[in-house]
Design goal:
β2, α4 and β3 form a beta-alpha-beta unit. The protein has 272 residues and is of the alpha+beta class. The chain has a 4-stranded mixed beta sheet. α2 packs across α4. The protein is built from 11 helices and 4 strands; from the N terminus they run ααβαβαβαβαααααα. It is globular.
């Protein structure tokens, strides 16, 4: 009897230790590389490394790559599929590059290329022609939430986000910032209830225990640390500050040309 109790007590301790580990990386890793199985970290490390290798030679066609779903939200098993959101100027060639390159890893998992549309239900191919871009943002300013740095990004990503903010500011496009922050968090950081549900299932916990695996305070720390800033004005100013510090290095990029064109086209006309 004492031996059975010892085994039971040991299992509880190990489970609590695992949950504590999960809380730690949810609040310290924007893309939660760890998961419920030890193999997940190595798989994700290989994935992120390969993404960087594939993205560098694309010459600005790729803006940024996000790992989405359970592999970014800390609840992945070693058999979990890989969901990628790819922000890009050129659709087919960029997606094909990542599809072939990641398939070559032979990790034995399914690859889904959502193009960052799974939550936002908008395309992630960014128009490079300035008038088309302005209309793209005016029609759906919540596309601003797509410009997440993810696991890899080019300077073009921030420049394109800055172009979008310029349109929103100068054309006085209405954005409910709280709703945008929530959409961004759900897409890239996860949903608290969903993550807790998956962890309960994959750690074989009792679903009737009451408290969620990921409590409110842990989730709030994750959102505050890795979510969008508290206000759109602060976000805009931070990108302008970044541009001033890096302008010389980004002048030759496609994103800088787009930003410059959008900035010129949205300038207020001077009255005669």
């Amino acid at each position: 009897m004492a031996f059975i109790f010892l085994i039971f007590y040991t299992i509880i301790l190990m489970t609590n230790y695992k949950i504590g580990e999960i809380h730690n990386f949810l609040t310290s890793e924007r893309v939660a590389m760890h998961g419920v199985a030890p193999e997940v970290y190595d798989q994700n490390r290989q994935i992120v490394g390969r993404i960087a290798e594939l993205a560098q030679p694309l010459g600005g066609a790729a803006l940024g790559v996000q790992v989405m779903g359970s592999r970014a939200h800390g609840c992945a098993a070693d058999t979990s599929d890989l969901d990628l959101g790819v922000m890009r100027y050129d659709s087919e060639s960029v997606i094909g590059t990542f599809r072939r390159g990641l398939s070559d890893l032979n990790l034995g998992i399914e690859l889904n290329f959502a193009g960052a549309v799974a939550v936002h239900t908008v395309g992630a191919v960014v128009p490079e022609q300035p008038d088309a871009f302005i209309g793209w943002i005016e029609r759906s300013p919540y596309r601003l939430g797509l410009f997440d740095e993810g696991v890899w990004s080019a300077p073009d990503l921030k420049l394109t986000a800055l172009a979008a903010l310029t349109v929103i500011s100068r054309r006085q496009v209405k954005v409910v910032w709280g709703a945008l922050r929530e959409m961004h968090a759900e897409a890239y950081l996860g949903e608290q209830a969903r993550v807790s549900e998956k962890l309960t299932e994959r750690l074989a916990l009792d679903p009737s225990a009451g408290a969620p695996v990921v409590p409110d305070d842990v989730w709030q720390q994750r959102i505050e640390r890795f979510g969008l800033p508290d206000d759109i004005g602060g976000y805009h100013r931070s990108l302008l500050t970044w541009l001033e510090a890096n302008r010389r290095d980004v002048r030759a990029t496609r994103g800088y040309r787009l930003y410059q064109d959008v900035e010129k086209r949205t300038r207020p006309r001077r009255s005669r």
